[in-house]
Specification:
By secondary structure, the protein is mostly helical. The protein is built from four helices and no strands. The protein has one domain.
Length: 95
């Protein structure tokens, strides 16, 4: 009976209650802080990634447009050459 009294007194003592209540108050706050920090970090990373993808897409589109323009200019230049205009196979072979 005396050992159970000691256990009850220990659980009722300030030594046990103070750390318990501190942890009870701190753990949810820390959990919320971690959740919100993670959410903010996730949104920041998402926004930066979208910006990088947009810039890369614009760069690729610009490169493709330049490549397309160069091919069109090359074809226009070739179409104006007399060897091509004449449609003579013997004159076109060296080209």
């Amino acid at each position: 009976m005396q050992s159970s009294n000691i256990i009850i007194k220990f659980h009722q003592s300030l030594k046990f209650q103070l750390p318990f209540f501190v942890l009870l108050g701190v753990i949810p706050l820390v959990s919320l802080a971690i959740f919100f920090a993670g959410s903010i970090a996730r949104n920041s990373i998402k926004n930066k990634t979208e910006e990088v993808i947009d810039l890369e897409t614009q760069l690729i589109a610009s490169t493709v447009n330049k490549w397309d323009e160069m091919n069109v200019l090359a074809l226009r230049h070739l179409s104006k050459q007399p060897e091509i205009v004449s449609m003579d196979t013997d004159r076109q072979r060296p080209i």
